[in-house]
Design brief:
It contains 4 helices and 2 strands. With 124 residues, the protein is mainly alpha-helical.
């Protein structure tokens, strides 16, 4: 089942939203972004915001490309189903929300309790 052009455009727009948000907050972001947090909720590793933006942008393109092209390499044709498209949307929506969340906490900061609650919501 090929994807509808309108569905594909909506998906691409959804994946652009985190980077539109990033463009708006870019000047307010610190030069070094926390990239890892310890068990105490405190950041213990930092990366430049340019590197993090490049990595997240590249990973977004890879995810989109893999999920877009994967049905072409499926010898049985099982990935052309509506179920595959729903799973694809679910994963890419989760990714877009995660990236927006990451940029938001990098911009505004996050307390230990807020981070733990966010992780529990994300995991649970």
């Amino acid at each position: 089942m090929p994807t509808k052009p309108t569905s594909e455009v909506l998906l691409l727009l959804l994946l652009v939203v985190p980077f539109a948000f990033l463009a708006v907050i870019w000047p307010q972001l610190p030069a070094q972004i926390p990239s890892h947090y310890g068990m105490d909720g405190q950041p213990n590793q930092y990366q430049s915001k340019e590197l993090v933006a490049g990595l997240l942008g590249g990973l977004t393109l890879v995810l989109y490309g893999v999920f877009r092209l994967l049905p072409r390499f499926d010898p049985r044709g099982n990935l052309g189903t509506g179920l595959y498209q729903k799973i694809r949307w679910l994963i890419l929506v989760f990714w877009a929300v995660f990236v927006v969340w990451f940029w938001y906490i990098s911009w505004r900061g996050i307390g230990q309790q807020t981070m733990l609650r966010s992780l529990m919501v994300g995991i649970g």
